[in-house]
Amino acid sequence: MNIGNIDLGERPLMLAPMEDVTDASFRLICKEMGADMTYSEFVSADALVRNIAATTRKLEIKEAERPTAIQLYGREPSPMAEAAVIAAAAGPDVIDINFGCPVKKVAGKGAGAGLLRDVPKMLEITRAVVNAVDVPVTVKTRLGWDCNSKIIVELAEKLQDCGIQAITVHGRTRSQMYTGTADWETIAAVKANPRLKIPVIGNGDITTPERAREAFSKYGVDGVMVGRASIGCPWIFRYMRQGLDNPDGSWTEMPMAQRFAILRRQIHESVERIDEYRGILHIRRHLAASPLFKGIPSFRDTRIAMLRADTLSELETILDAIEKRLQHDAQ
């Protein structure tokens, strides 16, 4: 699969853009685990144009994580084009436009998935961004606003005509948010459209190596994007890559000690990047979601303590105790 002149190889796996998750440190770890392409957190075009420090920090790219995309969202063509120029100066391989974020503070203000209710403006924004930069421009969006307006097959064609070089389709409507199940049949219909020539990346409910394999074999997408399943579990990319590369779809679980080491690395890099207190706050989402702690008997009190720890030493002590307990139970 190629995006412009970027060769992502066969059956590439992408790390989805996620606010407060896909910072530069996490992206690099996912790259090392097998992600073929990474995406930044959501970057507000208006905030970028106003040079808001917290937003400009999101433009940081590490050479080792490439290829990577900076994802922009906004509701007007001119600020989006201006923001695209600023973002392109940071050196991403791709500029991605967010037409899929369903949260009220974005979609409710006419950006993200909100533009699924104003397709002419969506196309105007897309053309403005494509014309503003020299790097490839892609789009991430949803099936439509609700179940009565699944417009994605026709919309993908219109976006292609604006000059984008790939499209990622999340298999839910905006109204679904993240509930229900992703509609991969409609994603497959986008890919099957003979008039669509650009790569189609499928997104939604890709939680296991088996599901990643099915996305390619059954639904025919060019790439697969992994989102929530990677939170607290960046090694999911290693499992998926093994499942895709092995003819029988087999994969091997990473040793527990290595998985704990990766989580500890996330914690330390988060603290180094921000500070101890806020760095630990930032990483709690990964700790809460990590499958490392799923199914441990009588874990409730320990889990609460882990998610309330506000110093590095306290958190390390708790993690050491959990790891020792799991090692003992495995013997």
Characterise the protein shown here:
There is one protein chain. With 331 residues, the protein is of the alpha/beta class. Helices cover 45% and strands 13% of the residues. It has 14 helices and ten strands. Strands 3-10-9-8-7-6-5-4 form an eight-stranded parallel β-sheet. Strand 9, helix 9 and strand 10 (223-226) form a beta-alpha-beta unit. Helix 9 (209-217) crosses helix 10 (236-245). The chain is globular. It starts with a strand and ends with a helix.
Which strand order do you get reading across the main beta sheet?
Answer: 3-10-9-8-7-6-5-4
Q: Could you estimate the helical fraction of the residues in percent?
A: 40-55%
Distance between the termini: 44 Å
Number of helices: 14
In brief:
The chain has 331 residues and is of the alpha/beta class.
Secondary structure topology:
Blueprint (H helix, E strand, L loop, with lengths): L1 E2 L2 E2 L5 E3 L8 H10 L4 E7 H5 L3 H4 L11 E6 L3 H13 L4 E6 L4 H4 L11 H14 L4 E6 L9 H10 L5 E4 L13 H9 L7 E4 L5 H9 L5 E4 L9 H10 L10 H18 L2 H14 L10 H9 L3 H19 L1
Parallel strand pairs: 3-10, 4-5, 5-6, 6-7, 7-8, 8-9, 9-10
Antiparallel strand pairs: 1-2
Helix pairs in contact: 4-6, 7-8, 9-10, 11-12, 11-14
